[in-house]
């Protein structure tokens, strides 16, 4: 994403990468792998925090709400949510919303000729 200029970045991809980077820099991203299946989830606190709230077992999130905390699921080395969000990371929808560009008699992105 660093090599792609700001006007053509896909905002969905940029937001997702920024969110994961902020969790990583705060040391709040967790990861576990079970042979061919992996989970990445966000935690409330970093590992070094000594607050009562971070250490009390009664205040920790329950396993029933774990699915709300999942950031990505990996299978055989492929992250599903990341790959979906990074589709067309270098194509901004705002760049193609101008219809005057499509009225030049050229082929539009769907493959139909416009005259």
Question: Overview of this structure, please?
Answer:
- The structure is a single chain.
- With 115 residues, this protein is of the alpha+beta class.
- The protein has helices at 11-25, 52-55, 80-85, and strands at residues 29-34, 37-42, 70-75, 78-79.
- It is built from 3 helices and 4 strands; from the N terminus they run αββαββα.
- A 4-stranded antiparallel β-sheet has the order 1-2-3-4.
Précis, in short:
Helices cover 22% and strands 17% of the residues.
Pattern of helices and strands: HEEHEEH
Strand order of the largest sheet: 1-2-3-4
Instruction: Indicate the structural class.
Output: alpha+beta
N-to-C terminal Cα separation, in Å? 35 Å
Q: Round the Cα radius of gyration to an integer and report it.
A: 20 Å
Strand content: 15-25%
Helical segment tally? 3
Helix share bin: 10-25%
Gross morphology: elongated
Beta strands, count: 4
Tell me, rounded to a whole number, the average pLDDT.
78
Profile the largest sheet: 4 strands, antiparallel
- Uncertain residue ranges: none
Q: Can you lay out the helices and strands and say which pair or pack?
A:
Elements: H1 11-25, E1 29-34, E2 37-42, H2 52-55, E3 70-75, E4 78-79, H3 80-85
Antiparallel strand pairs: 1-2, 2-3, 3-4
Question: What attributes characterize this protein structure?
Answer:
4-stranded antiparallel β-sheet; 3 helices; alpha+beta; 115 residues
């Amino acid at each position: 994403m660093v090599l792609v200029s700001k006007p053509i970045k896909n905002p969905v991809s940029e937001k997702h990468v920024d969110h994961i980077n902020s969790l990583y820099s705060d040391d709040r991203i967790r990861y576990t792998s079970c042979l061919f299946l992996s989970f990445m989830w966000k935690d409330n606190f970093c590992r070094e925090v000594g607050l009562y709230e971070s250490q009390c077992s009664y205040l920790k999130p329950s396993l029933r709400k774990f699915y709300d905390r999942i950031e990505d699921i990996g299978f055989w080395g492929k992250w599903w949510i990341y790959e979906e969000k990074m589709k067309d990371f270098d194509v901004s929808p705002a760049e193609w919303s101008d219809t005057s560009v499509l009225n030049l008699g050229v082929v539009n992105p769907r493959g139909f000729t416009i005259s």
